[in-house]
Each structure stands twice: as structure tokens, then as C-alpha cells.
């Protein structure tokens, strides 16, 4: 209905030249359901041009459009409740760090990881309680972010889950918020763990001429989180990225919504494709191609 309203306004009096249409159902004879992304453009002669591109991945819905004031207040209440236990954990981590002189290197690294993650969670809570303008994005190596996620994955998954690297070392730096990207990718990896995955792969590739959010980029980063878990339940397929949507009774339904929000903060997209035993979440981010892109990539 929302998409239909947007189409009606566009046809009647919208000043835009192009309207993007999401997840158009394709009625193909004797074929499984397929979907497409569409772009409706005005022609100089008064006509219309509709371009459609079949897609196998589901686009992430924007949770900010589905996050009512009541839910925002609930999140702030949750943040308040978490501050005290986090303060206790921070004190305990600092005490452990002071006593770590005689421990082996692996134990010291784990203690350091605890402290780092507590600080990151504190920063996240502060953002929930006191929203501030997005921080300017810094030049960063995406593989440094992924290595931080791997440390978290090894600490949580242990030997029960195999996490593999499939990196393209030629990928240049991007402009981004390292903490936010770490949170987003970690949420996707934890989602794989919770889906029963025994193998997770982090794959990076360069894309050329990729369309991201109505703009074609000469170079872009494709980051895929691939797992062999149970897949996305069919009943959640269209709502997976919305807040409070979870396939687990104990799930908060916030992890994927936050990951999708982070992708938008970086002017990227987050999509997925899934079947039992093979799920792929794909994060597309504009590549740092030169100084002229900085104004587009700042959050």
C-alpha cells in the first residue's frame, strides 16, 4: 500500500524524475516466485519508462519508518537498565586487566577484548539515550573491522563454529565508522550462530558499476556473510529487518534492524538470500574512489 501511494503521487504531481520500486512480484508462467527492483522514469515526450531488474536477494526495509515512538521509548528504557550492569562489568574487567601481568598472552587478549566490547556497548547505549549527529566517517580498512568480528566470534563460538576468511586483499580503504560497522557485521555473524550454523564465511569482493541506492558507483565493496544454518523462516522473509522481528522466543529482534540501519548510515544496502543450509547476507558499500566521494560518504 505504501508503495502504491508513492506511485500514485509520482504519476500525479511528483517533481522527481525517477521513482524506485522495491520487490516487485514477477508473474512468470511455470516458474517459482521471482522479484525485481524497478525504476520508473519520465520521458521528454510525456511518456514513462519502466526498467526492471530481477533480484534473488530481499532488500532491507528501513526500520526508521517502522519504529514508533513507543518502541523508541522502550529502547531508551532498556538502555537505562543496562547501564548499571555494564558499569559493574567494566570495573571487573579493569580489575582483571590489572591482575593479568602473570597470565599468558591468550588470556590477556581475551581480557582486553572484554574491555573493548564494554566500551563499545557503552557508546551504543549513549547514542540510544542521547541521539547526536552522525560522526564524520574515517578512512578504514574493512578487513581490520572483520578481524575484530572474528575475535568476537572465536570468543563466543569456540570450537563449535568454524569462521573462515575469504578476503580480497586489493580492496582499498573506505570511509566509515569502524565501531558501527563492527556492530553490524557482528550482529549478522551472531544471527548465523543462532540459526545453528557450523561454518560461517566472511567474503569481500570489489564490484564495478554497481547500483547502490539509486546511484551507480564505479567501485563498491561487496561484503558477504555466508552460513550453513537453518535459513530464514518463510514467514519472516518480508519483515526480517524490522525491529522486534525474531524467529527465536528469546530473541530481541533488534540485531538485524540495527545492521540495516548501519548500512544506510554508510549509504549502502543490506540484502539477503536464503534456503536451508545456505544463507547469504550481502552488505554493499560505496568504495573510496577519491576525495570527490567524501561528501557522499559522510554520515
Describe the protein in words:
The protein is built from 7 helices and 11 strands. It has 299 residues and is an alpha+beta fold. The protein has 3 domains: 2-55, no CATH class; 69-129; 137-297, Histidine kinase-like ATPase, C-terminal domain (Heat Shock Protein 90), CATH 3.30.565.10.
Number of helices: 7
Could you say what the CATH architecture of the largest domain is? 2-Layer Sandwich
Q: How many strand segments?
A: 11
Q: Major β-sheet, in short?
A: 6 strands, mixed
Quaternary status: single chain
How many separate structural domains? Answer: 3
Q: H/E element string?
A: HEEEEHHEHEEHEEHEEH
> What top-tier CATH class of the largest domain fits best?
Alpha Beta
Ends apart, CA distance between termini: 30 Å
- Low-confidence parts, pLDDT < 50 over ≥5 residues? 289-299
CATH superfamily of the largest domain: Histidine kinase-like ATPase, C-terminal domain
How would you describe the shape?
Answer: elongated
Catalytic activity: ATP + protein L-histidine = ADP + protein N-phospho-L-histidine
GO molecular function: ATP binding; phosphorelay sensor kinase activity
Domain Histidine kinase: 77-289
Pfam families: HATPase_c, HisKA
Key descriptive features of the protein:
HisK_dim/P_dom; Heat Shock Protein 90; ATP-binding; six-stranded mixed β-sheet; alpha+beta; three-stranded antiparallel β-sheet; transferase; 27% strand; 3 domains; 299 residues; 7 helices; elongated
Task: Summarize the structure in short.
By secondary structure, this protein is α+β, with helices and mostly antiparallel strands.
